[in-house]
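Researcher: Structure for this, please.
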Amino acid sequence: MVPQIRKQSPMYTDSASVTRPASSPIQIVPVETPKQWHDFHHLPFKVYADDPQWVAPLLIERKFHFMPKHNPYFQHAKAAFLLAYRNGVAVGRITAQIDQLHLDRYQDATGHFGFIEAMDDGEVFAALLGAAENWLRGQGMTRVIGPVSFSLWDQPGLLVDGFDTPPYVMMAHARPYFAPHIVENGYAQAEDLIAYRYGPDAPTDMLKKLLDRSLRRGEITLRNIRMDKKNFDSEVSMLLDIINDAWSDNWGFVHMTRAEIDDLSGILKLLLRPGDVAIAEYQGKPAAFAAIFPNLNEAIRDMNGKLFPFNWAKLLWRMKVSRTRTARMPMMGVRKSLQASPVGAALALSVIQSVRDFNFSRGVTDSELSWILARNTRVRHVIEMVGGVPYKTYRVYEKPL
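Model: Predicted structure, token format:
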């Protein structure tokens, strides 16, 4: 029988189980007070203080992200938020979470850890991971995977290669010492996720020939998303249907709920132009799409996490008027029934090329396609056909409890 999420306080404190021989003991506490939440959200500023590639997130957005009433993830999940202190100073943080949708789908008693940030101290990593594992065991879990922050739709994986460039929007960053400390605590590689760089100098001659041949047959037609008030909701529902079908066999997949897609659609309305979402129809029916987002991280990189009092106006100008010069394609899907066919490849190529041409013709100078499972050779082949170059690797780890 699969454990159900228990309605108990997401709190853990057991200083005896996490204290290691050191000059000062480590204390793990649940995040409850305003001071502790401040420490939780500001800890990354200490971890990456001397890392020029890190981009400080907008603190107001992060605060909302962790509030159950503002994040639809918590409609089907619960989490513990934990801080590590030494001598009264915050030195690490972690979350432990259980997603009921994952349990219902996989029947595997698996929980997750996420949002791990810590100073370069093996004792701190051991304390944080041990506390998260103990909380998950107390909920009946027998396996943990992570980092997953909070879900695969959010920011999965730990950066293990590609530290020399800043992260794109909704992609994580890390210090090189994170991975060794996690492995030291009994974690093994579960999956790797690949991010591709896709610049304007990518060769397109072969791609154009393939697309021209497919489009001449008349079975594939391209269009952009309809963003008018009358059609937008039905268009978003159609995209949700395609992505849930296209990704359904992916490792760790859990379908995106209606509440989550509604939350995402609010962002789409604010940030996207019709040309940023390409839809390919096969024999008159929507069969594939790709969406590309302006790179928010480029726009906020000099804001140090602060939106007020004046950065909100700067951000609005950069996102809506001057636009960013970088963009990320976080979503691309082809219906499962077509994925193994030449038609499926043509559909994928057509939507990728459409959003690429639209953005590069309007000032974008670089983009990222992410993320793709390392073992998904079919999709990786398509991306490399259009000139994508793998340049970052994110790793998800697992451990029996």
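Researcher: Any notable elements?
Model: Residues 291 and 331 are 5 Å apart (CA to CA). Residues 205-385 form a domain with the Aminopeptidase fold (CATH 3.40.630.30).
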